[in-house]
Amino acid sequence: MVIGITWLTVPSVGFSMTDLNVTELGIPQWWQFMYPLLQVAADGREWARRDLYSAALDRAGVPEDLRLIQYGPSGNYAAENRVGWAKSALTRVRLLESVRRGVFRITNAGRAFLADHPYEFKQSEL
Q: Where's the Restriction system protein Mrr-like N-terminal domain (predicted)?
C-alpha cells in the first residue's frame, strides 16, 4: 500500500516531514532517525529497545498510520526497522551503547556530539 506524505512538523528539529527525503511509503529514511534517537536518549536513562524506538518515532513526528506499515511477508514494521538501522549506526560510532541485550543509553561521546550539533547533523558528520 502506498501512502502519501503526511504534513507534520518534527518537534525541536527545525524541519518538517515535507523537507525529509521520504520513501514511497511516506516514512523518512533510516538516517533521518539518528537525530531524534540521540535527542530521546539524551535524558541519560537506560532505554529498552521498543521504548526507545517508540519515543524516537514520537520525537520525529511519525503518525500512527505510517508506524503500522509492514514489509510484505516478514511482517516487520517499516518505521521501526528504519529506527533500528539508525540505532545500529549510532551504536557503531559509539554515540549510543548497549548496556545489556535490548537496552541502550547515550554515551559521553553521544552527549558531546549532541551538544556540538544542537539542531541537526548529517550522516557524514558521524
A: 32-115
Q: How many domains does the chain have?
A: 1
Which residues on neighbouring strands pair with residue 9, listed in sequence order?
Answer: 16
pTM, two decimal places: 0.77
Strand partners, 100: 103
What CATH code is carried by the domain that includes residue 112? 1.10.10.10
Encode pLDDT of 33-84 as tens digits. Answer: 999 999 999 999 999 999 999 999 999 999 999 999 887 778 889 999 999 9
Residue 12 phi/psi, 5-degree rounding, is 60, 25
What domain range includes position 109? 17-118
User: Closest Cα to residue 28, out of 80, 90, 105?
Assistant: 80
Placement of cell 521498543 in the chain: 50
